[in-house]
Specification:
By secondary structure, the protein is an alpha/beta fold. The chain has 21 helices and 32 strands. The strands form 7 sheets. The chain has an 8-stranded parallel β-sheet with strand order 12-10-3-2-1-15-14-13. The relative contact order is 0.09.
Length: 707
C-alpha cells in the first residue's frame, strides 16, 4: 500500500477492457460536406475529449453517418466518402488503443439493412399467417375473400367438433363460398407479410420492412448486403481494431407492439387500413421444415395455434415453437456467428424483451438456445436507478446465466438513462447500478449514459468500475441453486392476440407460469440464495459429483429448483428421475404438474415458494455465506478461482447499511473500498470455520472482501 493508502494490487494501467464503450451514432460530429483533413482533426479531438478523457475504454460506431434519414437511405452502404472517413477514425482509435465495436446496420431491429434487403429481395420479408374462425349453423352459408393487405389464401378448414375437413379445393383463388352441412366452425387461413403493427413500425428508429429471421437465405442476404463494403473498406481492421459486431433486437416478430407517442420517419410507409388480425410467425418453407423435424403435417392443426387450450398442454403449440426456435437459431445466430468468426470478429448485441419471461418466449423463444452461438451475449438496460435495476432479476440473470454455463468471459449490457428522471441520477447512483450489474455476471457496458453526466462524473464512475472489473476478472461465479427455465410450458399455453404487447391479455396458465417465475427470482434475491438459471438442454447433461450437481462450465451446485410448470411439456421427467436416483437435492414448486412417475417419487422436496428453500437448502451442506444483519438492500456475488475467493457487496439503498456476515473461510480477508479506492482491514471474528465480519457500507457504495 502506498502513502495514499492505495491498494497494493496488480491493477492494470491498460484497463480499457474493463471500461464502458461509448455508444455513438454521429461519428464525432462528422458531416459529409467536410474536407477529409478537417474531419480527421475533429475526430481526433473528439476521441480525446469524449472517449479517452471521459473515462471510456472504447466506442460502438455506426458504419454510416448522415444528417437526414432520407440522405442516409440514399447513401447507406454505398458511400465511399463515408467509409474513407471511418477508416481514418479507426486509425486514430488504433493509435490510441481505443476498443471499437461496430453496429451491424443503421437502426434496429437488426436484419433489415435499413429496408434495403426486402427492397432488393421481396421474398425475404418476414411472414405470418392468420386463422380467422367463423362459427356456422347447419345450412348457413358464408362467402369470404382475402382480407385487405394480406397475400393469399393458404387453407380453409371446417371443424364440426368431431372431424376437421380441408375444404380448400372449394375456393376460387382467394374466395371461398360454403354452406355448412352441420354445426361447426370454418377457419379461413391466409398468409401475410408482417409489417403493420409489429416491431419494425412500433419503434423509435426509422420504419422499414424486415426480413424473415427463420429463413437462412434471408439472413444470408442481410449479411451479404451489410458486410460487402464493410469487408471491402474496413476488413484490415477486423480482429484488431474492430473487435465485435453489435446486433440489435432481432426477433421472430411473433406479436403486435403497442403504438408509441412518437412519429418516426417511414422509409416504407404503413397502410393503416390493413386489419390487424391475430397471427403467428411463419416462414415460406415452414410446413416442409415442420414435417421434416416433427414428422407430421401441421396444416390441419393450425387453428389450435390460435385457440386457448385452458389448463391442458397443447402438443402442436409446443412443436410449433420448438421448430421456430430451431429455424431462428440456425438461420440467424449460427450463420451470423460463423460469419463473424470467418472475419476475426465477435458477435455481440442483445435480443428483444429480456425483462419478462412472456416477452422472452414470444419474441425470442428460448434465450439459452439462441444465445449459444453469440460470443458476447448481452442485455438492454434502460435505467441507472439502483432499485429499478435490482427489481429486474430475469433481465440480469438470464443472459449472464447462459454465458456462465458456456464459460463465456464477456457479458454485455447496453445501459442508459432512457426510463429515468435524469436529474435524479447522480454519479453515485450510476456507479451503484453498474456494480449491481457486475454482481449479476455482466462485465462489459456499452453506454448511452451521455446526458446528465459530465466528463468528470464519467471518469469517477468508470475508473472505479474498471477496478471492480479487474477484481472480478478471475474465476467463476459461485451459485448455490440451479433454477429451471420453464419456456416449454410457456410455449404450450401461449395464444396470439390482436392487441399490442402492452395491452394484450394472456391465457391464465401462461400468465401463471411467467408471473410465478418472476416471483421466484425476486424471492431468491430477497433471501440471498445465489442462483443460476438453466434450460432443458443443460438438464439432460447434468451429473452428480460429491452430492453436488455439475452443469455446463459452472462450479457445482447444491440443488435444483423446478418452478411452476408442466413436467411433461418440459420433457425433463427422465432427467429428474435420474438425478433423484443419484441423490441430487431437487426442490419442486408444489403447484408444478408432475407426471405419474414423479408423483410416486419419494425424495422430491415440495415448496410453496422459494422462501422455504432458504430453510431447507443447508441441511446437507454448509453455507458459504450467512447474512446475519443488514442484508435487505445488499446485492452480492462470490467469484472463486484457484487461489482466491472474492466477494463484492453493493448497497443499493440511500441508507447506511451495517452488514454482518459469516463467511466459510479461515483465512483473514483483505478489504477494498471501491469508492475511495483504498485497502482496509475488516473487523473480523473467527467462529469455527467461519469469519464473522462487520462492514459499514454507505449509500450506493460497495465493498470487496478477498480471501
Amino acid at each position: 500500500m502506498d502513502k495514499k493508502g492505495k491498494l497494493s494490487m496488480n491493477f492494470s494501467k491498460n484497463d480499457n477492457n474493463f471500461r464502458p464503450l461509448k455508444m455513438l451514432h454521429g461519428h464525432f460530429g462528422y458531416r459529409l460536406w467536410q474536407p477529409y483533413f478537417w474531419a480527421m482533426f475533429k475526430a481526433k479531438r473528439s476521441i480525446n475529449k469524449f472517449v479517452v478523457k471521459a473515462g471510456y475504454g472504447g466506442a460502438v460506431l455506426n458504419t454510416y453517418n448522415g444528417k437526414k434519414f432520407k440522405n442516409r437511405y440514399k447513401h447507406y452502404l454505398t458511400d465511399e466518402k463515408t467509409f474513407k472517413y471511418l477508416r481514418g477514425v479507426l486509425k486514430i482509435c488504433k493509435e490510441k488503443g481505443v476498443r471499437v465495436w461496430i453496429y451491424d446496420e443503421l437502426g434496429y431491429p437488426s436484419g433489415a439493412a435499413f429496408g434495403k434487403v426486402v427492397e432488393k429481395y421481396p421474398e425475404t420479408e418476414c411472414y405470418g399467417i392468420i386463422c380467422n374462425p367463423h362459427p356456422l349453423k347447419k345450412g348457413e352459408s358464408i362467402s369470404l375473400d382475402l382480407p385487405h393487405g394480406h397475400e393469399k389464401l393458404k387453407a380453409v378448414l371446417f371443424d364440426d367438433g368431431v372431424l376437421s375437413r380441408d375444404i380448400t379445393d372449394l375456393a376460387n383463388q382467394n374466395l371461398i363460398t360454403y354452406t355448412a352441412e352441420s354445426d361447426g366452425t370454418l377457419y379461413y387461413i391466409a398468409t401475410k407479410t408482417l409489417y403493420e403493427g409489429v416491431h419494425p413500425t412500433r419503434k423509435f428508429s426509422p420504419h422499414c420492412r424486415y426480413i424473415d429471421v427463420m429463413d437462412k437465405n434471408a439472413v444470408s442476404k442481410f449479411l451479404e448486403m451489410t458486410f460487402e463494403n464493410y469487408v471491402k473498406y474496413l476488413g484490415e481492421f477486423f480482429g484488431n481494431t474492430i473487435e465485435a459486431v453489435f446486433t440489435d433486437e432481432p426477433s421472430v416478430m411473433n406479436q403486435y407492439f403497442s403504438e408509441l407517442p412518437y412519429n418516426a420517419y417511414q422509409i416504407n410507409p404503413t397502410d393503416d387500413s390493413i386489419p390487424l388480425y391475430k397471427f403467428v410467425a411463419w416462414s415460406r418453407n415452414f410446413e416442409a421444415e415442420f414435417k421434416a423435424r416433427k414428422g407430421y403435417d401441421i396444416t390441419p392443426d393450425i387453428p389450435k395455434l390460435f385457440e386457448s387450450n385452458g389448463d391442458s398442454p397443447s402438443k402442436v403449440k409446443q412443436d410449433y415453437y420448438e421448430v421456430c426456435k430451431e429455424l431462428y437459431k440456425e438461420a440467424y445466430f449460427d450463420q451470423y456467428a460463423e460469419f463473424c468468426e470467418k472475419h476475426g470478429l465477435k458477435l455481440s448485441g442483445h435480443l428483444l424483451g429480456e425483462e419478462l419471461l412472456e416477452e422472452q418466449i414470444i419474441n425470442e423463444l428460448d434465450f439459452f438456445d439462441v444465445l449459444k452461438p453469440m460470443h458476447y451475449p448481452g442485455i438492454d438496460l434502460l435505467t441507472c436507478q439502483p432499485q429499478n435495476v435490482v427489481n429486474q432479476p430475469l433481465l440480469l440473470k438470464t443472459v449472464s446465466s447462459a454465458a456462465a454455463l458456456e464459460g463465456k468471459a464477456v457479458v454485455m449490457s447496453e445501459t442508459g438513462f432512457h426510463s429515468d428522471n435524469k436529474a435524479a441520477i447522480t454519479k453515485e447512483k450510476t456507479l451503484c447500478s453498474l456494480l449491481i450489474q457486475y454482481a449479476n455476471g455482466i462485465n462489459t457496458i456499452t453506454s448511452y449514459m451521455n446526458k446528465g453526466t459530465n466528463a468528470k462524473s464519467k471518469r469517477y464512475c468508470y475508473e472505479r468500475l474498471a477496478k471492480a472489473g479487474q477484481l472480478l476478472k478471475d474465476g467463476k461465479f459461485y451459485s448455490e441453486l440451479l433454477v429451471y427455465y420453464p419456456v416449454k410450458s410457456g410455449y404450450t399455453f401461449n395464444t396470439p392476440s390482436e392487441m399490442g404487447h402492452n395491452e394484450r391479455d394472456y391465457d391464465t396458465t401462461f400468465e401463471k407460469i411467467c408471473k410465478g417465475f418472476k416471483t421466484d427470482l425476486l424471492d431468491l434475491e430477497k433471501y440471498k440464495i445465489s442462483y443460476t438459471i438453466f434450460n432443458s438442454s443443460y438438464m439432460s447433461a447434468a451429473t452428480l459429483q460429491n452430492n453436488e450437481i455439475c452443469v455446463g462450465k459452472c462450479l457445482p451446485f447444491k440443488a435444483v429448483y423446478i418452478p411452476y410448470c408442466f413436467i411433461e411439456a418440459e420433457g425433463i421427467e427422465q432427467d429428474i428421475l435420474r438425478l433423484a436416483k443419484l441423490g441430487a437435492k431437487i426442490f419442486v414448486n408444489e403447484g408444478a404438474v408432475l407426471t405419474p412417475a414423479l408423483k410416486e417419487l419419494q425424495n422430491l422436496r415440495f415448496v410453496k415458494s422459494t422462501q422455504q428453500i432458504s430453510d431447507m437448502l443447508y441441511t446437507d451442506f454448509s453455507q458459504n455465506i450467512i447474512f446475519e444483519k443488514g442484508a435487505e438492500n445488499i446485492v452480492y456475488c462470490n467469484k472463486i478461482s484457484n487461489d482466491k475467493s472474492t466477494f463484492m457487496f453493493v448497497n443499493s439503498s440511500a441508507e447506511l447499511v451495517e452488514l454482518v456476515v459469516k463467511i466459510h473461510e479461515t483465512k483473514a480477508p483483505i478489504g477494498y473500498d471501491v469508492i475511495s479506492e483504498t485497502k482496509f482491514t475488516p473487523n473480523t471474528e473467527k467462529i469455527g470455520d467461519y469469519q464473522k465480519i462487520l462492514l459499514s457500507i454507505p449509500p450506493y457504495e460497495a465493498r470487496f472482501l478477498i480471501f
